[in-house]
Write a structure and sequence with these properties.
Glutaredoxin, 6 helices, alpha/beta, antioxidant, EC 1.11.1.24, Peroxiredoxin_BCP/PrxQ
């Protein structure tokens, strides 16, 4: 009898511990993606076309996820990437911003701020979830689902070589450019 209780206790404990370490859809637990193939997507982009990540194979890609068009932090981040776009272009890097906003909002956002980067719409949040950036957030005690500001540097083979989570906007685009430049120089020396 005692061994049966002990077995039952052990089983319950294993289940509880396992659940604590298992990523559940929509939780704040972040999956590490560095060194893994970048999840592909085929999403609507500004200008009305669709963008498929695999179509960019052979190029480095900066894929940054942001919460909402035309908010202060998101605008600053988009302006920073736009300001540095020529430097990214020089080393062959494509910059893509993804949010759950629709294409119409993206187009207004681009025009209003003269943005020179690609903006992609993920209204269904499938790509946000694939990259682990659609998470449960909390503000003033209220829990809600939202985008964790994150950036991924993807090499020319489609592998994630660097990731930044819970990004602070100030200086972030410069840090991403430095990492992309390092990767570019490293690829030239091979």
């Amino acid at each position: 009898m005692m061994s049966m209780i002990y077995s039952l206790y052990s089983m319950v404990l294993c289940i509880l511990i396992g659940n604590a370490y298992t990523k559940k859809k929509g939780t704040t637990m972040t999956k590490q993606m560095k060194g893994t193939p970048a999840p592909d997507f085929n999403l609507p982009r500004d200008g009305g076309d669709k963008l498929c990540l695999s179509d960019l194979q052979g190029k480095m890609v900066v894929l940054y996820f942001y919460p909402k068009d035309d908010t202060s932090g998101c605008t600053s981040e988009a302006l920073d990437f736009t300001r540095l776009k020529t430097k990214f272009d020089e080393i062959g890097v494509v910059i893509i911003g993804i949010s759950p906003d629709n294409v119409k909002k993206h187009e207004k956002f681009k025009i209003k701020h003269a943005l020179d980067i690609i903006l992609v719409s993920d209204e269904e949040k499938t790509t946000l979830e694939a990259y682990g950036v659609w998470v449960e957030k909390s503000m003033y005690g209220r829990k809600y689902m939202g985008v964790e500001r994150s950036t991924f540097l993807i090499d020319s083979t489609g592998t994630i070589v660097e990731e930044w989570r819970k990004v602070s906007v100030s200086g972030h685009a410069e840090n991403v450019l430095a990492a992309a430049t390092f990767l570019h120089r490293k690829s030239l020396s091979i």
